[in-house]
Amino acid sequence: MLALQPDAVHVWTLDLSVPRDKEWLEGCHALLGDVERTRMARYAREDLQQKYLLTRAMMRSCLSHYAGLAAEDWQFDTDAHGKPYLLNSPIPLSFNLSHSGERAVFVVAHQIPVGIDVEQASRKSNFLGIAEHFFHPDEAEQLKTLPAAEQQELFFQWWTLKEAYLKARGTGIATGLEKVCFYRSHTAIKARFAPELMDDANAWRFCNYRLDNNYYLALAVKPSVAEQLEVIFYESWPLSTQAPQRLADDALPTLLLR
After folding, report:
1. Residue 245 · residue 23 · CB < 8 Å
2. Do 233 and 210 meet the contact criterion of CB atoms below 8 Å apart?
3. N or C, which end of the chain is more exposed by having fewer CB within 10 Å?
4. What is the arithmetic mean of pLDDT over 97-122?
5. pTM summary value
């Protein structure tokens, strides 16, 4: 099993575009609980059903690397805000799942608050309009000073960071994207929270990555010691019984410091 240090997070990545045969998909389906199977059936398109199936199988398989519990035996529930949590984990784990396009990502930590978000790069150009409507006014003003290409990159960095943080809190974007304000920096990610959130931005660690060039990835973590955080990436493959493979240096997502 994998050892998970108190102030470390493990990020698992999955390529949803890799072809899977019928037998493989049936194996994934066998891992799901009744609630998950019902939710999967609600998707009208087969490709969306398969993506849901693979992400849920990924989550269950990854969790089993940390505790002596079979992937099909994990039990979940949701809190008042809809955030899932484990009912029967032998050890205290916190986790979060996100997927976009053909990529899924899953983060696991030892009980500390953690959120993750991945977004596929979009060709849409109205980033300023979206930012002016949903972001903090200071962020919209910062975006206006940049060329169009840089606007897109910074927009997605901030969007994923906001989602990751609000998912870590357990409230989601209904809290209001404008209540978290990020600032440009070439050495670290700086943030300011609205007073009503009653939270200290300095207690959080934020990370931005570029995944496979076409995806933006963000982490929000509240470690017990703010200065200490280790992020380890693994490649996920649902149903795999082999030892987990850490991503090689040349396959790691690109860390962005802006």
Report:
1. no
2. no
3. N
4. 94
5. 0.94
